[in-house]
C-alpha cells in the first residue's frame, strides 16, 4: 500500500522504516493510518503482527525497527535492554554551541512544577542520564542578524524519556521547534488544545521539533545491521538555506 512510510529494510523478521515527524508510534485513533503500528499492520496485511522494538516521540522523525514476530521481538528486546545498540540523532538547536564535542551528564525526573503532565526535567534525585554530542556546523539564517544555530550529531548513552531534548535545553541550546522544552510550554498546551495561533507557529520556525534519528546499529543472530536515514525536507531546508557563521565543519 503506497504512502504508508519509507522502508529502509525488510526481510522475514524485520521491518525498518523512516518514521515521518507528526506520526505517533502507538494507536490513538480508530484510523489505521494515524499511527505507525497501524500503518505497519496495513503493510503486512491480514495476520501481520508487527512489534515496535524502539519508539520515537510524535514530532521526532527517523529510524524505527519493528519485528514481524514475537520471537524476533524478544531477541531484539534483550539487545536493547543490554544497550548493545548504537543510536545517533541529528538536531538543530538555538545558539552557537561553543564546544566541538562534549558529554552532558545530568539526572532526569518528573517536572513537578510544570503544567505539562509528560514533562521531565533535570533534578538531583533523578535517574542518571548521559548524552554525547558533536557539532557538525554552526550557522545563521539568511537575512537574519544575531540569530545563531548549531547542527549537532548526538548519541544518547542512556535512554531516559525526552533525554536529548532536556539535556540540550539544560545547556541553553533547546531544539528548534520544541514545544515543551523550548522555553514556553504553553506552545505545547496550545497545540494539544487546538489553539496554536499563526504567531505562535511563526515563533517555532519549523512545523515540528528538529530532532531526527538518523542512524541505528546492532547485531542480531551474528549479523550486523547498520541503518541510516536522511531527515525530512523541511529539516534539511532549514539547515541548507543558511549562511555559515564559521568555516569549521
Architecture overview:
The structure is a single chain. The protein has 249 residues and is an alpha+beta fold. It folds into 2 domains: 1-82, 2-Layer Sandwich (Pseudouridine synthase); 88-214 and 232-249, 2-Layer Sandwich (Pseudouridine synthase). It is built from 6 helices and 13 strands. The strands form 2 sheets. Strands 1, 2, 3, 4, 5, 6, 9, 10, 11, 12 and 13 form an 11-stranded mixed β-sheet that branches. Strands 7-8 form a two-stranded antiparallel ribbon. A hairpin with a 2-residue loop joins strand 11 and strand 12 (223-228). It starts with 5 loop residues before the first strand and ends in a 5-residue tail after the last strand.
Task: Please summarize what this structure is.
The chain is α+β, with helices and mostly antiparallel strands and 249 residues long. It has helices spanning 36-44, 70-81, 163-170, 186-192, 198-204, 233-240; strands at residues 6-10, 14-19, 51-52, 61-67, 86-94, 101-105, 108-110, 120-122, 130-141, 148-156, 211-220, 223-228, 242-244.
